[in-house]
UniProtKB/TrEMBL annotation:
The chain crosses the membrane at residues 6-25, 32-51, 63-80, 154-178, 185-209, 229-247. This is DUF3100 domain-containing protein. Keywords: Membrane, Transmembrane, Transmembrane helix. Pfam families: DUF3100.
Length: 269
């Protein structure tokens, strides 16, 4: 907390990123949307000791220690947004409320492939969800962010920030242009629990269907809000236990033995 150099660097990166603003790059029938969060991530990588050496190893360690604190503040902010929108949640259709069951597909696909590629316990943190802020906080509380599970969820979080936002924008453009899916359905699908990804998807759809912009934004925001609200419970009760179970099965299939169990997993047996 007393590393003033670190705080100064963060402020500078945030100001520069916000000054650049959102950039939309036309691509075929749609566009790629670049948001300030992406610039901040790239600038943060460039100032590390491996590149410009503006930040040193101590700065990086201090920044890592503040992740939990900043996530707590973000979760508190989410909490203040949920209360006033409860009437909207109650009026939402079953499709919005039950959409988090789609997260199970991430586990079923990601865990076996990750194990086959040689990943170990990192795959539990990385593949139990799309690894956004609430999921990072969950893994940090359960295992610690210095654990293999923590490294997995942080790795996917960074990849999602760098590649997920433009990917969602391009995917929304492609589906809107070349499929018969309704724009409202695509807006709901954009609300995966990431504000940056939702903004990219909704922005692309709004540009394609300007006459529906208000409803597209409403569906996207509602979907994203519900993903943040019920997504964490889906991770706790369904996705994370399923990821751990599937990891054991996949590990045994590849190596012929069960993986070593941590104290947390022994308690699950």
């Amino acid at each position: 907390m007393k590393n003033f150099k670190l705080h100064f660097l963060v402020i500078i990166l945030v100001v520069i990123s916000e000054l650049i603003g959102t950039i939309s790059i036309p691509l075929g029938a749609g566009s790629i949307v670049l948001l300030p969060m992406l610039y901040a991530m790239i600038f943060g990588i460039l100032i590390t000791p491996k590149f410009l050496k503006i930040a040193n190893e101590k700065d990086m360690d201090d920044a890592g220690s503040l992740i939990g604190l900043t996530l707590m503040l973000l979760m508190a902010k989410y909490g203040t947004n949920i209360g006033p929108t409860l009437p909207l949640i109650l009026k939402s259709s079953p499709a919005l409320i039950l959409q988090e069951f789609g997260n199970v597909g991430t586990v079923l696909l990601g865990v076996p492939i990750g194990v086959m590629l040689g990943l170990k316990r990192e795959v539990i943190g990385g593949a139990h969800s799309i690894a956004r802020e609430p999921n990072v906080a969950l893994i940090g509380e359960r295992y610690g962010l210095d654990s293999p599970e923590g490294q997995g969820v942080l790795g996917v979080y960074i990849v999602g920030t760098v590649f997920g936002t433009p990917f969602i924008g391009m995917l929304a453009s492609f589906l809107a242009a070349y499929t018969s899916l309704h724009p409202y359905a695509l807006a709901m699908a954009s609300g995966v629990g990431s504000a940056s990804m939702m903004t990219a998807g909704v922005g692309t759809l709004s540009a394609a269907y300007p006459q529906m912009e208000e409803m597209i934004t409403a569906f996207g925001a509602s979907s994203n809000m519900l993903s943040g609200l019920d997504g964490i419970y889906m991770s706790i009760w369904v996705a994370l236990p399923l990821a751990k179970w599937l990891y054991r099965k996949s590990y045994r299939l590849k190596y012929g033995v069960l993986p070593d169990l941590t104290e947390d997993e022994k308690g699950d047996e």
